[in-house]
Description:
The structure is a homodimer of 326-residue chains.
Chain A: H1 5-13, E1 16-20, H2 27-42, E2 46-50, E3 74-75, E4 84-88, H3 100-105, E5 108-113, E6 124-127, H4 134-145, H5 151-164, H6 175-185, H7 191-199, H8 204-216, E7 218-220, E8 225-230, H9 232-238, H10 248-253, E9 260-266, E10 272-278, H11 284-290, E11 294-295, E12 299-304, H12 308-324
Parallel strand pairs in A: 1-2, 1-4, 2-3, 4-5, 5-6, 8-9
Antiparallel strand pairs in A: 7-8, 9-10, 10-12, 11-12
Amino acid sequence: MGKWTEIANCIKEAGRVVIMTHTNMDGDAAGSALALCHALRRMGKRCVILLEDDIPGYLKFMHDHSDAEAEPFFVRSMPFDPELALVVDCGDAGRIEKRLDVFESCATKICVDHHVQVDSFADHSVIQPEASATGLLVYELIKELGVPIDKEIAEDLYVAILTDTGCFKYSNTTKECHLVTAELYEYGIEHEKLATLIYDTLELSQIKLEAAIVNWMEVFAGGRAVISYVTQEKLIELGATYDMTNSCIDVLRKIAGVEVCAFLKEHEDGTFKVSLRSKSNADVNLVARALGGGGHVKAAGATLKLPLNEALDATKAEIEKELALR
Amino acid sequence: MGKWTEIANCIKEAGRVVIMTHTNMDGDAAGSALALCHALRRMGKRCVILLEDDIPGYLKFMHDHSDAEAEPFFVRSMPFDPELALVVDCGDAGRIEKRLDVFESCATKICVDHHVQVDSFADHSVIQPEASATGLLVYELIKELGVPIDKEIAEDLYVAILTDTGCFKYSNTTKECHLVTAELYEYGIEHEKLATLIYDTLELSQIKLEAAIVNWMEVFAGGRAVISYVTQEKLIELGATYDMTNSCIDVLRKIAGVEVCAFLKEHEDGTFKVSLRSKSNADVNLVARALGGGGHVKAAGATLKLPLNEALDATKAEIEKELALR
C-alpha cells in the first residue's frame, strides 16, 4: 500500500471537506490549501478553506482566484458541516487553535505536512520533513486522487514551491522542485506574473521603510557587523506596519563582508525586539543569550527593556565580544 | 546531421582554442564561456577565454574557480596561437572589437548564441533566439562533445541559466530551464551559495545608493508614476560607481501601483541619461521620443542636456501626458 492510499481513500469517500492551514499563512500554506480545494471541487466535493486570521498582504492576490462556483475558497466560518478535516502545512494543533472545534467535529482527520511533528493529532498523516514544500506533497496527493492538474492547480502548487524555496535559492531547493516545476509549466502557468507579485511588488511604505533602515544603520566591528532599528514613532511617520519590519533584517544581510546583522524593532509597549543573524562562523545564539534571549547559531533573538540608545549599545557590545572570538 | 555535428567536429579536430564573449559580460556569457573552457580542457585541449574589459564585480567570484591547471581561464592577451575561435553569447562582431585580430587569425570560427543576429561572422553557427540562455545551448554542445558534466561545469551552466532568467522569474524561463537545472543538481552544485553571491550580496555603497534613490524619489500622477535621479556629485559622496546605477530603475519598478518609472543619472559631461520603464499599458517609447530618445514600449531612454531640475520636470511632464491617454 502506497503512502497516499489511506488518505486518498478517505478523501474519495467524503462529500464535505474542510481544509485548514497554519495561522499567519505563507505561500506554501495558501498554495497547498488552494490546490487541494480546487482538486476536491473538481471531484464534485463541497470544500472550503477555513481561516482564523487574515491572508497576508503579499498573498492577497491568491484570494482573487477566478472560479465559476459561487462558494468562496476562503471562509471565516463554516457554511456546512464537514465530514473530513484536511490540515496542510501545519504540524501543530496550536496553530489551528480557534478552529479546533470544527476539526474535532469531523469524523475523519488528515494531516499532510513537511514540518517536524511533535504530537500526531490526525487519524492519518503524511509527514515528510525532507520535502522542500508541502506543495510537493499535495502534488503527489492530487496525482494519487487522479484529478488532472489544470492551470489553477498548477499555479497554486507553483506559488507553494516558489515561496518555500525562496525563489529556488534556499538550500532546501532540490532536483525534485525543479522537475515538478518543469511539469507545472505544461499547464500554462503564468510564472512571471506570479513571481513578480510575490517578489517584485512592494508597498510604497515598505520601500520607504527599507530605505530608512539603511539610512539609520551603523556598520561596526571593522565592517563585519551592522545594526539598525525602527521605533513605533518612525513606523507611523513612514506609514508602515509592524509586519513590514519582518524583511528588514534581510536588507542588512545582503551587505557584502558583513558577518553579523542586528535589527531592533520597538514593540507597542516600548520594549525592543532584537533580531540577530550570522552568515558563517559567528554564533548569534551566544549573543542572544547574553542579552537574555536565545535561538540558533545563525538566527537568534532577544527582547530588551531599555531605551533605544542603550539597547543599541548593549547589542553592539555583545556582537563585538562574539566577533572578537572568531 | 544534427545541428551540433559540424561544430563538434571542428572542436574535436582543434588543439588550441580561444573562447570569446561580449564586452560588459553578464552571468550567461561568463558561465557559458567557463563551462566550455572547462569541457575543452577535459578533452585535452589548450583553451582560454580572451577578454577585452573587466569582469563585473558581482561575477568576480567566478574568476576564483578552483582548477589544478596553471593556465588561468580568463586572459587579456593570448598565451598561444589559437586554431579555433569559439564566440559564445555574442552575435555582434562589434562586441569583440578589440579581439577581432585574434578572431580573424583563427583557421575556424564558430558562434553559439541566443541573440538575434544581423550578420553572420562565423564559419559555423548555432543561433537560437528562442533559447532562454546561451548556457542551455552550451549544455547541448557539451553533451554532443561527450564530455561528462562535473560539478564545475554544472555550476557554470547553472549561473548562466540563473542569471539570464532572473532567478527563474523572467518570462523567458521555460520548462527546459527547470529540466536542465534539475539535472545540474545531480552533479552537486552549491546552488544556494551561487544564488546568494549573485542575488543577495551587495556592496555597502550599492545598498546606500539604492536607499538614496528612494529618499530622493517623487511619486506623481496620482501614484501611477515615480521618478528619481543620481548626480555625479552624489555618486562620489556615496562611494558608488556608475555601473551600480544600472539596478536603480528596478528598485523603483517594485513599487505597487506604479505604472511608469523614470530614473535620471548624470553622465560625467553633465548630461542626464533618462531610463524609462512601464509595467503594463503605458508606452514609454512615446515618452522617450518626446524627449529626443527612443526604445521599446516597456523600456526606453533618452539623453537630456538640461540642468537636473529642468530634466526632471521635462520627464515628468511627458510621462503625465502619456498616462493621461491610458
